[in-house]
Amino acid sequence: MKLKNIWAITRWLLLGVAFGVMAFIGILIFHIVYPIECIWGWKKYSFGWWFVNRDEKDEISNLYGDEGWRERNDIVIEDMTGFIGWFQRSYVAFRWMALRNPTWNFKLWVRPKNGPLSDIDILIDEGPGGALTYRNHTLFGEQYGFFTVGGTRYFRYSISKHVKFLWIWERHWIVQLGSSSERYIYKNKWSSRQIS
């Protein structure tokens, strides 16, 4: 393997450690930062801002989860009022920001470069979707490749397989690692989503 490819994986691993440390810190200090930032207003680059998801369409979705997530979890923020409601909202925000999307803005701040891909080196391309397209719930197979954007080397690896254990257990195993155009990816999940 070429040294520049090894460095792409090493950089990704080191960033993963940084994301993990930031997520751990976010979990530990969330209940101190949340009340302060609610008063402060979650201003850009304030201490709590690094732990917030700011990509959603409105303030409620940024702090308490997107509509789909809230619906799946039977969460109605508008019903959480008064003194007890504040603690309920705090718990929902903890689940969304500290546990589900930890350090979202920090991840976007250190995002990979955007631009045209060059020096593409494909090692595995099995299944539909193209050699650098992440495999997911609908694109089964495996892909692994390296590429350069703006002088920086990146990689993508993903696998999506249907796994069945006798008649008892049936899931999709999805692994996505490397860099997308928006962020670094670290996903390993078992999904029971049905394929149509």
Number of helices: 5
* Uncertain ranges: none
Helix content: 25-40%
Secondary structure: number of strands: 5
Strand order of the largest sheet: 1-2-3-4-5
From the N-terminal CA to the C-terminal CA, the straight-line distance is 39 Å
Summing up helix and strand content along with how strands pair, one would put the structural category as: alpha+beta
**Main sheet characteristics:** 5 strands, antiparallel
User: Strand-and-helix sequence, N→C?
Assistant: HHHHHEEEEE
Structural domain tally: 2
Strand portion: 25-35%
Mean pLDDT: 88
Shape assignment: globular
Rg measurement, Å = 19 Å
Task: Please tell me about this protein's structure.
By secondary structure, this protein is α+β, with helices and mostly antiparallel strands. The chain folds into two domains: 3-109, no CATH class; 118-191, no CATH class. The protein contains five helices and five strands. Helix 1 (3-40) runs antiparallel to helix 4 (82-100).
Which key features would you list for this structure?
196 residues; alpha+beta; 2 domains; 5-stranded antiparallel β-sheet; 5 helices; 38% helix
